[in-house]
Amino acid sequence: MDDITNSSKRLDGSLHLPVLVIVEPLLLPRTCILNVLRRELAEFEILDMATVESLDCTSTRDVRLVVLSIADKPIDDPSVEGSLAFVAECCPNAAVAILSNHDDEPTVQAAMQRGVRGFLSTSLPIEIAIAGLRLVLVGGVYRPLPVAGMNRIPDFEPPDARGLARAYLVNEGAGVTIERSVTDLTPREQQVLAELELGLPNKLIAAKLNLSESTVKMHIQHIMRKCAAHNRTEAVLRWRGRLPAQGRDHEPGAGPMQET
C-alpha cells in the first residue's frame, strides 16, 4: 500500500512527462537505481515500485519503459513470466527491460523471445546500463554481445575510450599481457569506439556525437584498419583484448571493409 501511495504522490508532480518505471523488490537497490535514473534521465518521470501490481496507478500515464529486476530467477520462472504478462497488460505501449544477475546467452535469448527489448546485467558499469536504457527508449534493442566460443578473461579491465590513458591487449595463447597505448586512435575515434562497445548503430552514434553518418562510417573504417579487424564487432573484441591481433590485412588499398 505504501508503494502505491508513494508512487501516486510522485505522479501529481509531473504529469506531463513520459514515464520510466523501475520494479525492484529490495528497497536499497531500488532507491539507488531511482536516484541514478532521475539524475541521468531528467526528461522522464522515474517511478519506483516493489511489484508490478503497482503499475495500476500508471494507467493514465505515458509509460515508455518498464525495467523489471528479476535477480537470480530464470526467465521461464512462473513469477517472471507472470510479471511480464502483467506489464504487457497494464502498459501495452511500453518497452520492457530486464535487470538480471546473469548475462549468459540462453537467459538473454529467452528474454528476447518474450519481447524484452533490453537486457541489463547487474555486472554492467552504470554508464553502459544508462546508454542501454537510452537505446531502448529511442526504439532500439540492447543486449549483451554474444561471443561464441570465447570466455571472459579473468581480471581483464576493458579500456574506457573516454579517458583512460592505457589499454591492454591479451595474448590468450601465450598468457601474456601486452601494454598498448590508446593514442593509436584519435580522440574522436576513441569516442566512436566507446559507442560501438555499447552496440549502437551508426545513426545513433552520429546523433549522440553530433556527427554525420558518413563521418561515423569513416571513423569506424579507420578503427577497423587500426585494429586489423574485418568488421565492427571484431574491432571491439580486438581492442578489448579478446581476440589475438593478426596481420594488418586492411591497410589502405587492401580491399573493402565490412559491416560499417
TrEMBL record:
Residues 178-243 form the HTH luxR-type domain. Pfam families: GerE. One of its GO terms (biological process) is regulation of DNA-templated transcription. The keyword Metal-binding does not apply. One of its GO terms (molecular function) is DNA binding. SMART domains: HTH_LUXR. The keyword Isomerase does not apply. Keywords: DNA-binding. Residues 241-260 are annotated as: Disordered. InterPro entries: Sig_transdc_resp-reg_C-effctor, Tscrpt_reg_LuxR_C, WalR-like, WH-like_DNA-bd_sf. PANTHER family: TRANSCRIPTIONAL REGULATORY PROTEIN DESR (PTHR43214:SF42), TWO-COMPONENT RESPONSE REGULATOR (PTHR43214). This is DNA-binding NarL/FixJ family response regulator. It comes from Bradyrhizobium huanghuaihaiense.
